[in-house]
Structure formats: structure tokens, C-alpha cells
Specification:
By secondary structure, this protein is mainly α.
Amino acid sequence: MNRDIFIKNLTGDRIEMSPKGRCANELSVEEFENGYEPFFDMIFEIATTDISGISGYGEFDEDNQAPFATFEEFVRETFNEEQEGYWHNWTQMFETSFLKKDYFDKIFAKIMKYAPFCEGQRYLANNNTFFVNMIVDEAGKAYCADWGRAGIMDFLMDFAILDLNKPYLLVPEKLWGYARKKDIEIKSFKERFLCMAYFKGLATLMWHASIDDLESCESITRSINELEERINKL
């Protein structure tokens, strides 16, 4: 089944698959400051989708199934050098790219440290909430326009991607206040956010290292390195 049709069937009328409006990447810092709540509302709305008929974790495969039994398996298989396709034998990049083994091992260890907090956290996530992939309509409502990497995982992944994309917007800091204002309990928030952020950050760093995008690699590394201090201040 086509991915968009699958997502539409899964979410019903709550998710607009062909949104109209302005690319969210065009928003200024001030515009986001004044209108970030619709982005957060959107992610929480996606996360309330009934996924009781779907088992597992991970990005949906070609059959729209989440292929991994546990969150830890999802993480380990994401970085498995024996996988088929583009990432087969990817560890060769340690010798040929910006990505170095000691740094990879350091961040991977942090993911594993916090991974137990994410076991059992199963929600529909867009998993591609970079601002270039989102639309804001005239009323200020936010929409995801690309569902190609959607899957079952902790919904904090979608917030972590927002922050990875533009850390100067202070997404986790805003989310902390938003949740208190809305009386939303997010158990083990700090540990889960760090896990999702390190997971997506490391995967994104690998991609940019694989295409020799040095500027993006440096930006991602800086964001990863500064995150824990930011989160611990909450």
C-alpha cells in the first residue's frame, strides 16, 4: 500500500496529507517564537494516533510494518554495518570522512545509556520534522508534508529533529514550558529527549559525513555536544 494512503487510513481525517501554505523553513526566529505552539500541537496530535494494530518499533518498511521487536534493536540495526544498501560497510567512513570511531562510540554509548527509558514508548512519529518538510497555513496551523520516514517510536523524536535542525530555536526548553502549561506529563522527559536527539543526531551526522558535507557535520556535532548541558538546566 502507498505510504501516504497508509498514513491517511491510520490517522483518519486528523492529518492533512497535502497541506497548502508556506514552507516552515521560511519562518524567522521571531515568527517561530510567536507561533511555535501549533508545531507542538501537531506532533502531539500525530502521537495520539491509534497504533494498537501495529507491533514493533522503527521506520515503516515497504509493507508498512515496524520491523524491530524492541527499541534497542531499532537503534542497533540502524547502525549495523552489515545491512544491505547504502550503509553496507559504513564503518569504513571512520578512515575516510569527518566521522571518527571514538566520537561515534561516545555518542552511541549515550544512546544506549538512555535507551531503557524509551522502551515501551510507542507512538506514530513523522520522523522527518525538519522545517523544510513542514507547511504553515494562513491560520498558523502546522502540517507535515513528507511521511516517507514515518514509523513507530518515541514521539519525542519529532521534537528532537526540530531542535537538531535549528537548535537556536530552543525547542526542548519551549517544550518543557509548553507541557507544564498544558498539564501534559512526559515521564523521564530529559532521558528520553536526549536518547532521541543523540540517535537522530548520530544518524544525521553519518549521512552528512558520507557526502563530505563538512559544514553540516560541524554544526551537528556542535549541537550534539551542547545538548546535555541545555537539557540538564531544565
